[in-house]
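#structure-requests
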Amino acid sequence: MKELSLKEIQRESLRILKDVHSFCEKNGIRYSLAYGTLIGAVRHKGFIPWDDDVDIVMPRPDFDKFCREFVSQDDNVLYSPESEENFLMFARVCSDSRTKAVSKRPWSSVETGLWIDVFPLDGLNPSRGTFIKELGYLRSLGRKEMRLRTGKYLKLNRNLSCKEVLACLLKKVLYFPFCLKRVKAKHNDFLRRFDYESANYCGQLCVMDYPEKEYNLKNWFSSYRKVPFEDVDLFISENYHDILSQYYGNYMSLPPENQRVPPQSYIKFFWR
């Protein structure tokens, strides 16, 4: 199998993204490009040159509708959080028939291809102070999920070093009593405590990278517009400046050269 280059990863990711965009537009599902993909749209009118993944966000009602109804017109596969194969709290749309992903951080019980990430935006606690206090509990759930993925559910193979095998075996012993499905259920209950439509604040708490920065005014996601992204027009939030400024500060400035690295460099993607 031939490994995908960065440009090939971007082209294949864009193919999946166009498929998702087309479905959402036809079915009235709100979405916005997010994180590095949103910076790419605003700053580069496409991918950040060194970026190797795609992120989009959807208000929870739209996310649930997307997960129930998505039908690919281009042979892609949806893994929703409710899918038995998916270890994650968010959805991925994958190019399973065309590509193969190889990673030491398994997120699925089945072999998948290259993907784009689809995150729900959930209503948040109306008190920011209480929200910050609650993050400790949510972080503990996230750590359990990751340790179960990289230990209990990681298959031992020749690609792992001796150190990685020992760490995996230790996690399999320590986390034997835990069930990922039950941990995910607790995480899901936490995310859905506040109704999105009646909430004043919203954020993405499926992945706990910088959760303190996820406390957004919900009206930042109340309207959307199309912008150029590579060779297609895609949706972003009208309030992209507020969202990006809160998360990244001066997002229009390029990072130092030594930080211009693909965020998913620990994953290898191959053509089938």
